[in-house]
């Protein structure tokens, strides 16, 4: 009986799912319409990047935006260039995953071929309202750079360390900080920390330089030059990694009780560091931050660690890839405490080819983390599990990565190929890195049930 019931429910679920699908799809002799069929797909899968503040260079929101690019959209979706989603969805799913089904791709193709008909566009939500939705609502505060950054057109990577001071009228709870890239083509990554000054120990928040070139100076003197120290030369408290950015990465909020922290009146963003990719012509960047305040007292601040390059466990063997070779490397790390993962960030550079991470529990069971079969340097995400992911103490995280330094690799920065290696502290895109960065909170009972979507 129970068996039959299960069978019946499964059957019903399939029927309902099938009905829902056909309800959205026009039949073969009905026209495909923008408002009815295409807009929902684009809003769900594209507009979160293709909006005025997003990572993409143009908006895909209004009918005109989208219809004018219909052919190109059909092409990039059919070839799965867009939406970019490097993680293998047959291995693990994530809260922020974005990929199209074959039916959706077909529908877009038909729409473009049939002349991109509008349908009932009057029934759609106004583009201005959508634009607001995609830009995560109005922030409570916007913090801009004191002046734009000049990126010289000399075809070399530029690494800057910056200080951006900001003052608040009172002690404030910060829920989240979003970095908005100015020059979207050039800004490669940013790691941002907040220094919280005690007003009595820091007279002039603006004292010191706004930015220094990372390559030129040592860290202790950088701190002095930027005026990051208290007036008496001591260090003020710092909250690390309050906002990080990588190519294609999107910002998202954690559930209420996760993350967040309190700051006083005098603060400074400490960007260690900000990396611009090489440019053949002089360019300008005016990136900025959006700050969202919180109401609830932050209970569970997030922390992060990284394994691999510059991390808690080394890359084995040493990350050296001779010219014309394809090599596999490993990272192995045993987790000392119960943790709940809220974000996974795989990181490699240009000749990275494949990235695979999983954990083995002390019981011998496997916890799948992430698999990327075709690494693409341009799309580096913060992968957020659908629910908080518990890794019990004593589990070992294994990471395996392939690096392809052959001429047949179109992403090889050198032609002919030459030896590429991890160089101590170098983040240059033409050197290599192999890292897994994990953002987590110490595990609490029930975390497995907390939904991150
Ligand atoms: C994660 C962010 C993101 C998502 C999601 C995304 N895009 Fe993009 N898209 C970009 C960026 C960034 C570019 C700039 C070009 C590049 O770097 O490849 C781009 C470029 C494009 C281009 C121009 C390609 C060219 O060759 O000029 C098209 C067309 C496009 N996207 C369509 C889409 C469509 C359609 C979707 C949804 C089905 C989508 N994108 C989803 C970030 C995104």
Features:
453 residues; alpha+beta; Jelly Rolls; 3 domains; 5-stranded antiparallel sheet; 4-stranded antiparallel sheet; globular; disordered N terminus; binds heme C
CA radius of gyration is 24 Å
Count up the domains.
3
Text of the CATH class of the largest domain: Mainly Beta
Which fold name corresponds to the CATH topology of the largest domain?
Jelly Rolls
Q: What's the helical proportion of residues?
A: 10-25%
Supply the CATH architecture of the largest domain.
Sandwich
Output the strand order for the largest sheet.
6-3-9-5-7
Order of helices and strands: HHHHHHEEEEEEHEEEEEEEEEEEEEEE
Bound molecules: heme C
Strand content: 25-35%
Biggest sheet layout: 5 strands, antiparallel
Mean pLDDT value? 89
Shape: globular
Number of strands: 21
């Amino acid at each position: 009986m129970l068996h039959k019931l299960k069978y019946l429910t499964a059957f019903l679920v399939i029927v309902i799912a099938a009905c829902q699908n056909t309800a959205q799809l026009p039949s073969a002799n009905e026209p495909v319409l923008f408002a009815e069929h295409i807009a929902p797909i684009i809003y769900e899968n594209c507009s979160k990047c293709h909006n005025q503040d997003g990572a993409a260079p143009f908006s895909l929101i209004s009918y005109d935006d989208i219809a004018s690019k219909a052919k190109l959209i059909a092409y990039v979706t059919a070839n799965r260039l867009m939406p970019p989603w490097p993680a293998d969805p047959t291995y693990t799913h994530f809260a922020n995953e974005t990929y199209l089904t074959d039916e959706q791709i077909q529908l877009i193709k038909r729409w473009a071929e049939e002349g991109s008909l509008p349908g009932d566009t009057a029934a759609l939500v106004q583009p201005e309202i959508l634009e607001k939705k995609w830009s995560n609502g109005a922030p409570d505060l916007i913090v801009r750079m004191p002046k734009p950054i000049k990126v010289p057109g000399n075809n070399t990577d530029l690494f800057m360390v910056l200080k951006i001071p900001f003052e608040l009228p009172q002690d404030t709870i910060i829920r989240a900080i979003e970095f908005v890239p100015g020059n979207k083509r050039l800004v490669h990554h940013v790691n941002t920390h907040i220094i919280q000054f005690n007003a009595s120990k820091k007279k002039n928040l603006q004292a010191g330089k706004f930015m220094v070139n990372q390559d030129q100076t040592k860290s202790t003197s950088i701190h002095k030059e930027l005026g990051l120290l208290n007036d008496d030369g001591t260090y003020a408290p710092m909250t690390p990694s309050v906002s990080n950015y990588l190519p294609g990465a999107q910002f998202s909020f954690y559930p209420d009780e996760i993350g967040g922290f309190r700051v006083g009146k005098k603060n400074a963003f400490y960007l260690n560091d900000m990396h611009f990719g090489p440019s053949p012509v002089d360019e300008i960047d005016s990136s900025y931050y959006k700050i969202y305040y919180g109401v609830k007292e932050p209970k569970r601040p997030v922390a992060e660690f990284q394994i691999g390059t510059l991390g808690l466990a080394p890359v084995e063997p040493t990350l050296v890839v001779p010219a014309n070779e394809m090599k596999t490397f490993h990272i192995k790390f045993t987790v000392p405490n119960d943790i709940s993962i809220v974000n996974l960030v795989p990181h490699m550079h240009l000749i990275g080819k494949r990235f695979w991470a999983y954990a083995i529990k002390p019981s011998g069971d496997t916890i799948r983390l992430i698999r990327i079969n075709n690494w693409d340097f341009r799309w580096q995400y913060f992968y957020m599990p659908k629910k908080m992911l518990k890794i019990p103490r004593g589990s070992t995280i294994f990471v395996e990565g392939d690096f392809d330094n052959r001429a047949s690799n179109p992403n090889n920065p050198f032609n002919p190929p030459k030896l590429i290696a991890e160089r101590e502290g170098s983040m240059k895109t033409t050197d290599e890195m192999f890292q897994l960065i994990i953002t987590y909170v110490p595990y609490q009972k029930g975390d497995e049930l907390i939904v991150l979507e």
